[in-house]
Amino acid sequence: MCGIVGAVAQRNVVPILIEGLKRLEYRGYDSAGVAVIDQACCLARTRSVGKVRELEGRLDAHMEGATGIAHTRWATHGRPATENAHPHICRKTVALVHNGIIENHEALRRAQMQLGYEFTSQTDTEVIVHEIYRRLEETADLLAAVRAALPSLRGAYALGVITNREPGRLVAARRGSPLVIGIGIGEHFIASDVAALLPVTQRFMFLEDGDIADITRDAVTVYDAQGARVERPVRHSELSADAVARGEYRHYMLKEINEQPRAIADTLENRIGVDQVYAEAFGPAAAGLFADIEAVQIVACGTSYHAGLVGRYWFEGLANLPCAAEVASEFRYRKPRVAPHTLFVTLSQSGETADTLAALAYARELGFARTLTICNAPESSLVRGSDLVLMTHAGPEIGVASTKAFTTQLVALLLLVTALGRSRGLTAEGEARIVHLLRSLPGQIEQILGLDTAVQAWVPFFTNKQHALFLGRGTQYPVAMEGALKLKEISYIHAEAYPAGELKHGPLALVDADMPVVAVAPNNTLLEKLQSNLQEVRARGGELFVFADSDNDIHEDPRTHVISVPPVDDLMAPIVYAVLLQLLAYHVAVSRGADVDQPRNLAKSVTVE
Ligand code: M6R
Predict the structure, then answer these.
(1) Does ligand 1 have an atom closer than 6 angstroms to the CB of 303?
(2) Cis upstream peptide for 87 (omega within 30°)
(3) What global pTM score does this model have?
C-alpha cells in the first residue's frame, strides 16, 4: 500500500514524479504529495487529499527542482487528510516519503515531543522524519543520519529521504516493503514498483531487505543490513511504458478482462509441448524436488486464495495429493501440523502481499519440505523468497479488482498439478488431455468474451440492489466466491457466495424478490444437484441469474434468466465461468457510477498487515 517515487536528475523532476504517482495510484489513492528542493535550495511541497489529479491541479506552475520525492497514500494511521499526506517534513530541512507501518511510533512520538519536536500529522510516519533530522544535526550527513535512525524503528518501511542541506542526494531504504532503483543516464530514480519508472528507464536495481541506498545523479551505492557495501545486479525490464497504459478501454479492469486470452497464451508459452507439461517450467531443480512431495499446502489472500481453493480440488482429484488451502492472515497465526514432504505453495499477483510473505517466512520456520510461488511480479519478494517459482505471464494488472491474474493463476496451478500428478497416477493420456484443453483455452475465452452484450442485459436487475447471492458447486464454489468478491469490491453491493448445497442450512432465509441469486452451472456431475438447489430458490420467490452450459436443461422463465454458455470441459469451466462473473461485476459497477479501477478503501497491493 502507498506508492513512493523519487528522482535525482539535472532536469526538473516534478513531471516525472507526477507521472510516476499516476502509475502507482493502484497502490493507494486517499491523498498524494510531492516535495522538491527548489532553485533557492528550499524544500517546496504540495499535498492534497484524493487522487493524483487533485494534486496535479494544485501544483504551482513554478514548482521545480532536480531532486524530489512523491507519494500516493493508502491511509493506515491517520485519516485521509492533507496534513497526513506525505512527504512529511521536519524543520524545513528533511523531507520523507514512507510505505509501510512503524509499530513503535507512539513511543517514539512521546520521546520526540519531550525533545521539542512538533507534530503536524497523526501518521506513524512523522516520527521517522524527526528521527532522521535529529541524527542529521549530529552527523551533517544524510546517509549517516538515515543509517543511525533506522535501528530505532520497529516495523516495515520503504523510504525516500532528501534534505536541502545536500541538494543532489536521495537516500532510500527498505525493510519489509518493496523498493526499486531506476538507473538512468546521468539521473537516478526510486519507486515502489517498476511500472512507475517505465517512461524514464527500463533498467532496475532491486533492493534487498535491510538495504540502504545512497543515490546521486552519477552514482548509486548500496549498503546491506550489516552496513557492508554491496553490488545489486541491474536488470533490464521487458515491460514497456505502454504495457501499463489503458489504451482505448474505459477502465483498466475492462482492458485486463479482455487481455485474458493473451495472458493465458503467454502463461502457457514454452511450458507445454504437444502432449506434456515441461518439468523445466518450474526450474532446473524441480523434477528432483517434486518426486518427494506427498502433500500440498496452499496459502494466499483474496482472489489468489480463491484460485488456491480451485487448486485444492485439482490436486486431490487429478494428482492424488492431499491438499489444504488457507488465507495467509489466518495461517500465519496458527500452529499447523506439518506433514512430512509437504510442498508449501503461495499464490499472488503482486508478490508483495504482507500476510502471504509472513506466511512464507513462517512456513520456513515450520519446516515445510519446499516452497513454491505462483506469482505475476518478477523480482517480487515472494519470487525471491521461494525455492521454486512459476511465473504467470499476465502482464501488469493495474485495476484493483484482480481478473487476469486469477485466470492465469488457475492455468499455472493446472501445470503444477499435472507435473506433480505424473508420478501419482496421472496417465500420459490424462496429461495429454489437460495439455490439449489448455491449448484451446485462449480461443474459448475469446468466445466467452463475445457474451458481453448478454451480460450487460442483466445489469438493470442489479444496479439498485443492496445484496446478491452467488451459488456454485465443486470447483464452481470458489468461482462463485470470486464472483461475489468482484461484485462487492467494485460496486459496493453486499454479495456472498455459498456452495449451493448449503442454502437450506441457513442462507435460504435471505431469499426474496430483492435478492438476485447468481448461479454458475456448467455441465458436470453436480449439475442435477445444483438444479434442485435452484428450484429451492425459485420456490421461495427468488430471482435467478444462471450462467448455464448450452447443453443444460435450464429454461428461462420470468424469474429465471439464463445466459447460454458454449459447452466447455469441466476442467476448464472454473476459468471460463470466472470471466463471465468478472464481466457482470464490471458492468454493474459502471452502471452504479462506481470508481471501478480504484474502489474506495482498497489498494491493489496490500503490503501492510
Ligand atoms: O497480490 P495478491 O494476489 O497477493 O493480492 C491478494 C489480494 O489482496 C487481492 O487478490 C485482492 O483480493 C483483490 N483486490 C481482489 O480483486
Answers:
(1) yes
(2) yes
(3) 0.78
DSSP character at residue 118 = P
Q: What is the DSSP letter of 277?
A: B
Does 258 contact ligand 1 (Cβ within 6 A)? no
Q: Which of 252, 331, 349 to mutate to test the pocket of ligand 1 (most atoms within 8 A of CB)?
A: 349
Which residue type sits at 320? N
Summarised one tens digit per residue, pLDDT across range 429-477 is: 999 999 999 999 999 999 999 999 999 999 999 999 999 999 999 999 9
Residue 292 is placed in which grid cell?
518427494
Nearest to 307 by CA among 318, 298, 316: 298
Residues 6 or more apart in contact with residue 85 via CB below 8 angstroms = 31, 32, 33, 47, 48, 49, 71, 73
Phi, psi for residue 546 in degrees, rounded to 5: -115, 125
- Separation CA 82–CA 65 (nearest Å): 22
Query: Is residue 2 flagged as an active site residue?
Result: yes
Compute φ and ψ for 359, nearest 5 degrees.
-65, -40
Distance CA 424, CA 421 (A): 5
Mutate to test the pocket of ligand 1, among 252, 299, 303, 326 (most ligand atoms within 8 A of CB): 303
C-alpha cell at 56: 496535479
> Angle at the Cα of 231 (from 228 to 237), degrees rounded to 5?
145
Q: How far apart are CA 201 and CA 237, in angstroms?
A: 9
Provide the H-helix boundaries in 221-285. 252-258, 260-268
Distance CA 403, CA 391 (A): 16
605 lines ligand 1 (CB under 6 A): yes
Q: Considering only the C-alpha atoms of the chain, give the largest distance between any 2 of them, rounded to a whole number of Å.
A: 79
Q: What is the DSSP string of 499-545?
A: EGGGGGGTGGGG-STT-EEEEEE-SSTTHHHHHHHHHHHHHTT-EEE
Angstrom distance (rounded) from CA 349 to CA 408: 10
Q: 282-311, pLDDT tens digit by residue?
A: 877 787 788 889 999 999 999 999 999 999
Phi, psi dihedral angles at 520 (to 5 degrees): -110, 120
